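note to self: dont lose this again. the chain is below, predicted strucutre after it. 232 aa total, dont forget to put it in the shared folder this time
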Amino acid sequence: MSEQISYTIPQRSPLYQAPPFDYKAYTKVSVFCRVEEAAIRKALPKPFDVRGDVIEFFIMDVPEGGSLGSYAEGGIVVPMSYQGRPGGHVLYEIVTNDDSMAVGREVWGYPKKMGEVEWTADDTSVKAKLSRRNVSLIEIDFKAGGAAFEKPLLQPRFQTRVIPSPESSDVTTQIIENTLGQASTIRHVVGTADLKIGGNATDPFSDFEVLEVVGAEMTVANFLLAFGKIVG
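---
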């Protein structure tokens, strides 16, 4: 009987387990902004088509992510389509623990990097800051009380999973479709938000000039992060 090989490395003490990961009562603050469609096109991987000009800036606090434990993250999600199928692409994403970073990159192709999140929240407000290597990337000051608004469709996610060759600079690329399962909302609050975007050449969040803030929201919810599907 052959020995069971662990899902990832180190094989004696894997960094993360195989999905699914059961997320409980995470809190996410999102600001939806209209930007130049040309800026989305410039940043979006080539297999994808731009679908709209309203993108999501978000920061998220995860008190319980199954075996991934507690961490925080933030980033940018843009509307796109793949072979005519609409969805969302996580363009940039910063997380605060190594197992979430590794599993996101290696399994689904999420573009995760390690960084920092400052987070203060109550039932009606969130003040959060996303940064990496001492560079502020997203700052959100959210308060309840805004008008209802129409959000872009950003699910399912379509990501490019890039697998580097150990022999050369060649890569293998796969398109991964990922849908959140068993999603349930505990609380949803529409509000207003002050938004500041920073960045640099390494993390070019500021390539997007905000033309209009369409709306902002705070969501407390659950979901199950399960295996994705290779679609290209």
